[in-house]
Amino acid sequence: METETFCLPGESADLTISTWGRTMTNDQLFNKHAAAAYLTENYIPVRPRTLDAWRRAGRGAPSHKIAGRVVWSRAELDRWVAAQLASTSRGGVR
After folding, report:
1. Element holding 91 (H helix, E strand)
2. Residue 58 resides in a domain
3. Structural domain of 33
């Protein structure tokens, strides 16, 4: 697979775009299917349709629209799950 690396002169390359359209940064970006799979494999079972519903309702992990595509950051998914665990645990931070 061919990739192109973009960076400003004198800076390290932190954005790589593959020729088949998947965008990767130092923090991996997921489409809704990959985000649902990541959450399911690592935390709780989540379907892609649930991510759509949470996005419409303004709930769930923050998502972004890049070049017309909705993506979720792995770090933001992890932070969101951690915040949910902290806010809903008994004796946790509220």
Report:
1. none
2. yes
3. 3-87
At residue 26, the pLDDT reads: 56
**Mean pLDDT value across the chain:** 79
Is residue 93 within 8 Å of residue 86, measured between CB atoms? yes
Complete DSSP assignment for 15-45: EEEETTS-EEESS-EE-HHHHHHHHHHHTS-
**Within a domain: 93:** no
10 Å CB burial of residue 67 (0-12, 13-18, 19+) is exposed
Number of structural domains the chain divides into: 1
Is residue 20 a part of any domain in this protein? yes
Q: Is the pLDDT of residue 68 over 60?
A: yes
* Whether the predicted pLDDT of 4 surpasses 50: no
Q: Is residue 94 part of a domain?
A: no
**Model-level pTM greater than 0.85?**
no
